[in-house]
Amino acid sequence: MNNSKKSIKKIGILIVVMFFVTMAATAKITLVDSEKMIVNTYNPRINAADSTIKRGSIKDIDGYVFAYSEKNGDTYQRKYNDAVSSAHVVGFVSAGKSGMEASANFTLEHISSEPFQRIKAFFTDSDIEGDSVYLTIDKDLQDIASSLMRTNKGAVVVEEVSTGRILAMVSKPDFDPSTVYQNWDSIKEDESSPLVNRACQGKYTPGSIFKIVTAVSALRNLPDIDSFSFDCDGEITFDGQTIHCFNEKAHGTESFLDAFANSCNGAFSQLGYEIGAENLRKTADELLFNRGVDFTLSTSKPEVQLSASSSVNELAETAIGQGKTTVTPLFMASLVSAIANDGVMMKPYLTDHVENNEGNIVSTTVPEKYAEIFSSEECRILTEMMTEVVNNGTGFNAQSDYFQVAGKTGTAENSGGSDHLWFVGFAPADEPQYAVAVVLENNDGSANASVIARKMLYNAINRADLN
Amino acid sequence: MFELLVILSRYLFLLYIVVFLANSVIFLLDEAGYTRRSHRYSVITGRTMIMLMHITAFLIVSYDKEAISFHKEILLLAAAGFAFILLAYFAVSRVYKNSCPLIWNCVIFLLDLSLIMLARLNPELAFRQLMWICAGFLAAILIPAAISLIPRFEAFEKLYIILSFVLLLSTLVLGKSQYGSTNWIYIGSFGFQPSEIVKFLYIFYIASVFRKRVELKELIITGCLSAAIVMLLVFQKDLGSALIFFMTYMVMLYIATSNVFLTALGLGAASVASVVAYKLFNHVRVRVAAWKNPWADVDGGGYQIVQSLFAIGTGGLLGSGLTRGMPMSIPVVTKDFIFSAICEELGTIFAIGVLGIFVVLFVRGMMIAFVCRRRYYSFLCAGFTAMMAFQTFLIVGGVIKLIPLTGVTLPFVSYGGTSVTVSILTIGFIQWVNGYHVSEEEQEAFGNE
């Protein structure tokens, strides 16, 4: 065999190897990456819907049917049982798609063992049925949250801290998915935007609940924070601008713990000043601000806009949760969940499991660690501070006879009217199970965020007694 | 009911391609002497699979769900396609003495797959593709006669390279831009891609030069001319073709000299050149960025590749079934991205089978180059095969995000007159070399008696 023949043989082998690699890479897309492709919102295939098959149902954790399909002539129609309190989570399909009707569309339209179902339908006229989705939310909790909020706009989120499962997600004002199509014009023009899911898309000024972030930044950046002391006379002036404490109350001489429990604006803007804009921004970024958390439904990104060039004023405002900072209730629930879960933020999720037409479980969501954002020591200190808020501070309305609540209140001034009221927290403080975030938008005085939070935590912990 | 049949048809397509590939392997084993059967049986089975696939696919594609009847035009196309398959087998068996039936099988399988996918995506293009395929075969039928008229066609080495440059340079003057590359020439309404034709001429040229002893002078001349072609193509933003020419040159150089050092030197120079090109040209950087993380810019640079991955990933192992996917959402789906459409509707397993058919084709081509004793023909064969293999690898690897995407056609399958005609002509030459080799061996065998 001469040299050129040997070379031809080698090139031949090279080509074969190249193609085996290509085959393996093709298989990998389908076997490994396909799940990622199927849930991507840019994939036009996930929006396809076929009215000649029976779309799967959407149910709550206990099997309450929110949405189902019914045959009407040759095609199927979407129907909703009472789903008003869960309207934003369940969504609708009549006038475009939203909520889980949009996010889980591919699953709801997916026909398991399709050839078999089609053969059966051909001979027996049975339904060709998509898979059904069981949500993590509990309709009873949804109804309770909805009624507790009374006439307020806003949102309530309850999350299990060890898993990230969302037990309740309520946004107000709400709408009725079953009549969305008929009332489309009036809903669309309603200035209170009932279609927006405020729980994950509302961009709210955090107010004092942001002091959690400032406190963490102080722990990370100020070595002598233990000996911090502040003399509050009800106001503090930076660069010509004065920041007042709530109701211009003078808190007197406070430690770090007292200042947090009293939600003292003077002390926290002073802390912000000592921490510095860059460091505070760095801590916020470490706590996933400006990045957000992946979620089943579309979310708004929490934002902190500090930078090295920010003015002292902007820094002081940001440190107490005013200024250009925005958060969503879902993000705040995840953030306090991480404090309650030894620093680990779990990925929040809404789909508990998926069942096929025969009632067999096709897939179950496995809780996923999302990020580790606090140290154990920080969690211990924060829990202590948040407990103090409830026991001896601004969060007294969240005190419960049955368990210890840890939390933080917030009152966010805003240009659009009266203040937003916040409560974020978790319980029981010593062995945390559930985290909660409540925001009442331009509070009208008919409800109290701390009270709603306490009642939601009570009902979540005693969920077995509901029904 | 129709939906059910389409879903069940996925298993049929799988069966066709598995049986086809199995018989291709059996053929190779028979020939290598591992079995004692004649390989006629496996060839006929392969042909039967193509015809069954043709009938199954066109019944689905031509069916009109709303009207509950068949599209007449597509049925006509199906009949014409079927007639073509029969005629092509008949013609090549008459004209090409001792050609390899396995290669014809693979080529006709791929061409028929092209007709099926195009009929599903855009029937009008399928008609035009069929016309180009017929033209390609008519031209290929003339090859043996042409070679018998001009027996020593290696003598025209200078003509080949001059023609190549004329064609490539003409795009600078007359060229029109399509899909971001300026590599089309229009004469009236008739457009073609000169770079496709140059591929053909270029192999003739390099094989002609390298058939002699390769000294420094040949190295410098071929090296400089090849580099000039590659640079011209990069300048026209036709990165895919540039890469194909470069790789083919390296392969030919390696085969002619067996010099690992030279080849390594060439590859090293190319690496330096790629880095320079990356720094120099924005369109190169855009391609690389889109490959590294297409998700970062789904609406912009990453759009094409992401849409392709969606199609493949959503289709799954068995595919959505012909006509049941959404391949129209993939950009340039009839040309560069036709492989993604095959993945989506016929399934990843089928698509891997298609790659298997390409492998059989290339292995066969390299085997002919290996056994052929006349150096010039051996080089021609190796060059043609390697060039086609790299082209296939570039586009398939590109649409599955294995390598950065460069817009070239998938041989035999993508829509494109110049591409499909030149691919068929290439196979014609490989087959002719095979016939030449076999008849030479036969003559020797007679001589020994």
Secondary-structure blueprint:
The complex is a heterodimer of chains A (467) and B (449).
Chain A (H helix, E strand, L loop, with lengths): L2 H37 L18 E2 L5 E8 L2 E6 L6 H4 L8 H5 L1 H4 L5 H11 L7 E4 L3 H10 L4 E8 L5 E7 L11 H6 L8 H4 L9 H11 L7 E4 L2 E4 L2 E4 L7 E4 H6 L3 H11 L1 H10 L25 H8 L9 H12 L3 E3 L4 E5 L5 E4 L4 E4 L3 H17 L13 E9 L2 E11 L6 E8 L7 H13 L6
Parallel strand pairs in A: 1-4
Antiparallel strand pairs in A: 1-2, 2-3, 4-12, 5-6, 5-17, 7-10, 8-9, 11-14, 12-13, 15-16, 16-17
Helix pairs in contact in A: 6-16, 9-11, 9-12, 11-13
Chain B lengths: L1 H31 L7 H23 E2 L4 E2 L1 H24 L5 H21 L1 H27 L7 H18 E4 L2 E7 L2 E3 L1 H17 L5 H20 L3 H19 L2 H21 L1 H11 L10 H13 L22 H9 L1 H24 L3 H25 L17 H32 L1
Antiparallel strand pairs in B: 1-2, 3-4, 4-5
Describe this structure in words.
- The complex is a heterodimer of chains A (467) and B (449).
- Chain A has 16 helices and 17 strands.
- By secondary structure, chain A is of the alpha+beta class.
- Chain A has a domain of 250 residues: DD-peptidase/beta-lactamase superfamily (Beta-lactamase, 3-Layer(aba) Sandwich).
- In chain A, the strands form 5 sheets. Chain A has a 6-stranded mixed sheet, with no helix packed on it. Chain A has a 5-stranded antiparallel sheet with strand order 6-5-17-16-15, sandwiched between helices. Chain A has a two-stranded antiparallel sheet with strand order 7-10.
- The radius of gyration of chain A is 26 Å and the shape is globular.
- The mean pLDDT of chain A is 92.
- With 449 residues, chain B is mostly helical.
- Chain B folds into 2 domains: 318 residues, no CATH class; 129 residues.
- Chain B is 75% helix and 4% strand.
- Chain B is built from 16 helices and 5 strands.
- Chain B has a 3-stranded antiparallel sheet with strand order 3-4-5.
- In chain B, helix 4 packs antiparallel against helix 14, helix 7 runs parallel beside helix 9 and helix 14 runs antiparallel to helix 15.
- At the A-B interface, helix 1 and helix 5 of A face helix 1, helix 9, helix 12, helix 14 and helix 15 of B.
